[in-house]
Amino acid sequence: MSATLPTAEAATRPAGRRPLAALRGFWTRPVPLARIAVFRTIAYLFVPVDVFLTTAWVSAHADVPTAYYQPLVVGQLLPLPTPTPTVVFVVQWALVACALAAATGRAPRLLGTAVFLLYFEWMVIAMSYGKVDHDRIAYLVALAVLPTIGVARWRDRRSSEAAGWAMAAVFVTVMLTYFLAAWAKVRFGGWDWATGSTITRAVIRRGTALSDWTLDVPGLLTAAQWGMLVVEFAAPLMLLVRSDRARMALVVFLLGFHLMVFGGLRIIFLPHCVAILSILPWERAPEALAAVRSRRGRSAGRTGVVPAAAPPV
């Protein structure tokens, strides 16, 4: 009977503070440092992939006359250099070098901060010529918060509230990317966006064998646009995910959606997909790898050559 009665502290605690306490718990829920170590390696190793493959066109801005450079608002507020050929070359190679060094886990605050600042400048160079992508913000936030954690090892089972705050910041930004995408659709296109021909035009321009057939099904792409709006506006429900299994299911769903879009329209948001990976419980990866190695060792021992028995006397 006494277990059901509220304590004196709970009875005197103002009811209005309970949601705030839950919110604080979301932002400071401890996370194993091993999760940070693995995700940090993935995030930093993606930098050269992004520089030389995903956004290789950014380096071409070195040959564009500086008169065409119209910096973003942040580029106007900060004293950032005009992207001359020398500036673009230095930023590109300094970014790649710092990212590869940061992926080793050494000097995480110094190298991590350098990677964030250089990648920030790389994005200003990329998006100051009339085209601004929305698939970079969550990855940029990940690069910003990773240096705040400090040293983390792959097998470090200690938990850290700083690590929890960093991963929560990336998680919230991933969610806002979807929610604000829906808001932008309605803000600029109105609710008529859902009944328009946005996806139809995309299939005509960039369609593949996996999506061309949808043009022959009346109403299918319109229904898909309505479904996209509903799912994106419901993105805040992602924050209710708690268990590791639910997190893995969420990541599979999100990555599956992006793979489906890539298969049908040849559009992929790789930096955003890297940010999505921060949701996974990466602290299990080292143990899983060790288990695979030990299993291989046992199987190799069973299939190995057994010494012959000594001949009878």
UniProtKB/TrEMBL annotation:
HTTM-like domain segment(s): 28-274
Name of this chain's protein: HTTM-like domain-containing protein
Keywords: Membrane, Transmembrane, Transmembrane helix
Predominant location: membrane
Superkingdom: Bacteria
Ranges that cross the membrane: 42-62, 82-103, 110-130, 136-152, 164-184, 223-241, 248-269
Species, as recorded: Geodermatophilus dictyosporus
Membrane association type: Multi-pass membrane protein
